[in-house]
Specification:
The protein is mostly helical. The chain has one domain. A two-stranded antiparallel ribbon has the order 1-2. Helix 5 runs antiparallel to helix 6. The radius of gyration is 19 Å and the shape is globular. 12% of the residues are buried.
Length: 187
């Protein structure tokens, strides 16, 4: 690993996670996505700030991971594909986000800015995490096996080079930005 990037990893240097977490929270706040009303307006199709921030993060993160992996500064840790579990988790996450008005990251960042309404979500996240831990054996027996396809990645699944998936991700992001721009111009 490059000595200049050695601070990014290693059990003795976990403080970098705290620093990057604070930077991430600050950027969420500056991006405007720690505001309850901004997130609610996304689900009303009136404000696409959250969508733009998330798509930017996904595209930059995807390309960044590809570059780090290509330079052997990061390793992939592929989790098994479990379609029912992911579908149920996404539905629970989506309903929770609509009701709460924050996602977990923006909720914690909002709490750090003094938004006490975000405290309810923190309690909910802790209760949900505990409930999941207590029910994991049942989930593992009844939910995880449904639609379980093992460790899959899009390049192998689609039979295309890895760079093509990242290029597709960037193209998809730019396409979504173009659609959002059109929608905002009509409003």
């Amino acid at each position: 690993m490059s000595p200049s990037l050695a601070f990014l990893t290693g059990p003795e240097l976990l403080g970098s996670a705290l620093v990057f977490g604070i930077i991430f929270g600050f950027l969420l706040h500056r991006g405007g996505v720690t505001d309850f009303d901004v997130i609610v307006r996304l689900f009303q199709f009136r404000d696409f700030t959250v969508l733009k921030v998330m798509m930017t993060a996904i595209a930059v993160g995807g390309v960044g991971i590809a570059l780090l992996h290509g330079q052997e500064l990061a390793q992939f840790h592929i989790k098994p594909t479990n379609l029912l579990a992911v579908g149920l988790g996404a539905a629970i996450f989506g309903v929770g986000m609509v009701l709460y008005g924050y996602c977990p990251g923006t909720g914690l960042a909002a709490l750090a800015t003094g938004r006490l309404d975000a405290l309810a979500g923190l309690v909910g996240m802790l209760v949900g995490g505990i409930a999941y831990a207590l029910s994991y054996d049942w989930v593992a027996a009844h939910i995880l096996p449904v639609g379980a396809y093992g460790k899959l990645r899009l390049p192998e699944l689609l039979g295309v080079p890895e760079w093509a998936c990242y290029a597709g991700l960037v193209a998809m992001t730019l396409g979504i930005f173009a659609l959002v721009r059109k929608a905002e111009a009509k409003a």
